[in-house]
Amino acid sequence: MNRLVDMQDALSQATTLEEFQTFVENLRDVYDLEHLVYHSVNSTGGQYAALTYKPDWVERYIEQDYARIDPVVQGCYRQFQPIEWKTLDWSAKASRAFLGEAGEAGLGNQGFSVPIRGPSGQFALVSVNHKCNDEMWASFTSERAADLLLISHYLNEKALQIEGNPHRGPTRSLSPREKDTLTLLATGANRANIAETLKISESTLRVYIESARFKLGAANTTHAVAMALTHGLIVV
């Protein structure tokens, strides 16, 4: 958790899109990834991206409008949960050709993406990829999936803040029990352990989680934890 806290502190210092880009590059290095991408689309179609690919591949991707056939982008549009790239359908001829070209441009053979639904119709995704075998990747995602989920929401909140777009902040204060619940979730505790620690039933715990989500305007539990941390409502 210390690494995550350090990353949050570093991100809080970014005040320009250039500094945001530098943070994305540093984050890629901290987690020893091949590439990391943050891509945001607002309700009017305006786009912003911070990523670690070479400019010529980015230009090629935009020029060919590869987002239309990229299974990662299309999968993230349709789903709300994080996506392992190997679970996506890469069987179409266009998808296979795209994958081959992307691989030549440095794309890793393993990937993980987090779809984000933001305020006012905003959509974003954070993708990471690496070149390694299945066993190594399974170990990485097992250890780092929770970090990546939280970091993805931190990135989105910061990008919206820098761009000056309206974003949802907490409109109501959290109760002590709601804070306790989100704090324990942020430390990585599972629901059964949290219920035991707080001496409540898991059904009561779900009530606290859903109440906190509603107050924060969060899309899911992970988003609620990220928002609570970002706005200083809980400290880990």
- Continuous helix count: 10
Strand order of the largest sheet: 2-1-5-4-3
- Average pLDDT confidence is 89
Distance between the ends: 8 Å
- Describe the sheet with the most strands: 5 strands, antiparallel
Number of strands: 5
Principal-axis shape? globular
What is the CATH level 1 assignment of the largest domain?
A: Alpha Beta
Give the number of domains.
2
Q: Tell me the series of helices and strands, N- to C-terminal.
A: HHEEHHEHEEHHHHH
Q: By CATH's scheme, which homologous superfamily of the largest domain applies?
A: Transcription factor LuxR-like, autoinducer-binding domain
| Uncertain spans | none
Proportion in helices? 40-55%
InterPro entries: Sig_transdc_resp-reg_C-effctor, TF_LuxR_autoind-bd_dom, TF_LuxR_autoind-bd_dom_sf, Tscrpt_reg_LuxR_C, WH-like_DNA-bd_sf
Organism: Litoreibacter ascidiaceicola
Pfam families: Autoind_bind, GerE
Domain HTH luxR-type: 167-232
What does this structure look like?
With about 240 residues, this protein is an alpha+beta fold. It folds into 2 domains: about 1-165, Transcription factor LuxR-like, autoinducer-binding domain (Beta-Lactamase); about 175-230, Winged helix-like DNA-binding domain superfamily/Winged helix DNA-binding domain (Arc Repressor Mutant, subunit A, Orthogonal Bundle), CATH 1.10.10.10. It has helices at about 1-10, 15-30, 55-65, 70-80, 95-105, 135-165, 175-185, 190-200, 200-215, 220-230, and strands at about 35-40, 45-50, 85, 110-115, 125-130. A 5-stranded antiparallel sheet has the order 2-1-5-4-3. It is globular. The relative contact order is 0.13.
